[in-house]
Structures are given as C-alpha cells and as structure tokens.
C-alpha cells in the first residue's frame, strides 16, 4: 500500500467514524459499525488505530482542524484586528448554538472537540491567534510591548468562556451583542500603552 493510499484509508476511517458518531453517538458506535461504514475490515481498522479511543482522538483532531479552518474564514472577512476578533467571538457562540449545519457544527462535533485535553485545546487556540496578534503589532493596532502568547491565551480563554458559558447579563444569541462585547473590552486592552497608563495613575 502506498503512502498516499494509506493516508486516504486513514482519512476514510476517520470520516466514517465521525458519521457513525453523529448517527449513533460515540458511546454506541462500535469498531464493527465504523468498519462497515468505511467499507473495510476490522483488521484494516486496527492497522491504523489501536482501539476506539484512538479513533475518537483522531476524530477530535479532525474536527478541531475543521473548526479552525471555518473560524479563520469568518475572521478573514474582517479587516482590522478588532473586527477579526469580534468575528471569532461571534463564530464560537454560533458554533455552540448550532444555528447552521453547513457553516458550524452539530452537538456530536462539539462533544468530539471536548474530548481533547483542555491544555491541548488552549495551546491550539493560542497558536491559531498568534499570527493575527503579531500582524496587529506590525500595523500598530496593538502596543509594541504586547506579549503575543499572554494576549493570545487571554483571548482564547474568553473564547472558551463564550463557547461554554451562557451570560447572565448579555444576549449572547445576538451576534451584534457578542461583537460589541469584544470591541469594548478586548482590543482596547491590547492597544493601550500600559506604561503611559501607569504614569497617569501615579500622577494622580
């Protein structure tokens, strides 16, 4: 079997497993079900994955990649960093609500995402955000001393919260409310000159 064919087979198994998880749920879908959906034997499944848990992990990785591709497309429609981060926030709130199956993700995909270790999820999100923040430093949208990793982690944690925790004060089902929330509290904090703020405080 060539490397390309092996990669194709592995991808087929992952896609078939995801289809089974969507139809039957992760707990009920079996290796036999996945093999049948993929049109391969059980032994072929075990050539690529040691057990069902490994398949679930691969599906989570696949879903994570898809999630970031879709979020990147949403962010690319924005010009400034403020607009990009606002669009990212709107994307994750709508993804959680599952408002459009073609653009976002169903509950099984959400469950798959959450099977990944929280630390891994956070690191992936920080890595995803880093180029956007670095570009904003070049254009002057954020302060020159901004710590990219720390700022990325802070906003990643905001996204995680928007994804998982309903607001008691804001209508997070409204995209404009979500966008305004980010515009008001996120980018201004990245852009303010902290040393100047300290000097102003000290002067008082």
TrEMBL record:
DNA-binding among keywords: yes
GO molecular function: DNA-binding transcription factor activity; transcription cis-regulatory region binding
Organism: Mycobacterium cookii
Name recorded for this polypeptide: HTH tetR-type domain-containing protein
Domain HTH tetR-type per the UniProt entry, residue ranges: 7-67
One Pfam family in the UniProt entry: TetR_N
Coiled-coil region: none
Keywords of the record: DNA-binding
DNA-binding feature ranges: 30-49
SUPFAM superfamilies: Homeodomain-like
InterPro entries: Homeodomain-like_sf, HTH-type_TetR-like_transc_reg, HTH_TetR
Record keyword Hydrolase present: no
């Amino acid at each position: 079997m060539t490397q390309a064919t092996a990669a194709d087979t592995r991808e087929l198994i992952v896609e078939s497993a995801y289809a089974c998880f969507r139809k039957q749920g992760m707990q009920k879908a079996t290796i036999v079900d996945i093999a049948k959906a993929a049109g391969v034997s059980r032994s072929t499944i075990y050539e690529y994955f040691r057990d069902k848990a490994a398949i679930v992990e691969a599906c989570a990785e696949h879903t994570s990649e898809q999630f970031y591709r879709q979020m990147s497309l949403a962010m690319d429609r924005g010009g400034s960093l403020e607009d990009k981060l606002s669009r990212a926030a709107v994307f994750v709130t709508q993804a959680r609500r599952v408002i459009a199956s073609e653009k976002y993700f169903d509950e099984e995909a959400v469950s798959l995402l959450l099977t990944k270790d929280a630390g891994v999820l956070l690191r992936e999100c920080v890595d995803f955000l880093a180029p956007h923040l670095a570009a904003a430093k070049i254009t002057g949208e954020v302060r020159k001393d901004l710590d990219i990793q720390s700022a990325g982690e802070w906003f990643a944690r905001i996204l995680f919260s928007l994804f998982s925790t309903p607001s008691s004060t804001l209508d997070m089902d409204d995209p404009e409310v979500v966008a305004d929330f980010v515009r008001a509290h996120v980018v201004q904090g990245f852009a303010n000159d902290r040393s100047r703020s300290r000097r102003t405080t000290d002067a008082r």
